Amino acid sequence: RLGPQGDRLRCMLYAALGYASAFTGEVRDALTYSQKLVDVAQRMNSDAELCRAYLNMGTVHMFFEDYAVAMVFLSRSLALAESCDLRVVQATALDSMGNIHAVFGFWDLAVVYYQRAYLLRKQVQTLPGMAQSLLNIAHTHYSRGEHRRALGTARMALAAARRCGELRVQSHCLALIGEIYAKIGKPKRALSMLRYSHRVWQKLNPGSPGYPAALLVTAEVLSTLNRKRSACRLLERTLELARHHNMPSVAIECTEMLYR
To answer: Which of 182, 189, 167 is nearest to 216 (CA)?
Structure first.
């Protein structure tokens, strides 16, 4: 028996199990745990618990690319979080809704969600969340071809991530900065930033040369600098990592570059 706090503990347990099952690709289990979380939150008659439960359900559907259903639950979560003034939950839902729009290339809409999320995180001074929202905004600017704006925002995200020691976001910021430099014709500076990104990533993942998407950009920059042999070696390692982490789009790009 879980005692008087039983339902609250059940919510925490089902939320954790839902996310864990989604990460490991267990669709049926993830959806079952998320539905149990919603059921318990409704039984508690707590809007605060229910908005978190809807956020969990929306996130799980995002994992399995069921974006229409994900948007329904994220919208419900956002509405309840606003009524409860739970700003971190609001920001998380908004970032996720931005991510869904970014998947379909709706950058103008995505950036609106990201900016709203950033302002909420800034109000409650959650530095890791601020860094992630800024990184999302920077990616949106980059995808719209706004390279200077993307560079400035990525630097802001990097500064926030450094202040709170968020290594994953730091690595992604540095990789994006490197990619921007490559795009604007500064390959040597790009390579420096990308290598820095890999070193930060290795602190989180000892033994890994870097995360696959950034390694792919590094190989492209090396190729631009006519370092073909180094680029090929890196592409072979990246292909292996992409297959291991089930990243088919990266694996396809690696294969195409190796056969050029």
So the answer is: 182
* Residue-wise pLDDT tens digits, 209-228: 667 778 878 888 888 888 88
Cα–Cα nearest to 31, from 70, 77, 85: 70
Read off φ and ψ for residue 227, nearest 5 degrees.
-105, 65
Contacts of 220 (CB under 8 A, 6+ apart): 182, 231, 257
Per-residue pLDDT tens for 105-145? 999 999 999 999 999 999 998 999 999 999 999 999 999 99
Long-range pairs, 5-12, Cβ under 8 A, ≥24: 7/40, 7/43, 7/44, 8/44, 8/49, 10/36, 10/37, 10/40, 11/37, 11/40, 11/41, 11/44, 11/49, 11/52, 11/53
Q: For tokens 């989604």, what's the residue? A: 22
Whose CA is closest to 87, among 124, 51, 112? 124
What gap in Å lies between CA 101 and CA 121, rounded to an integer? 20
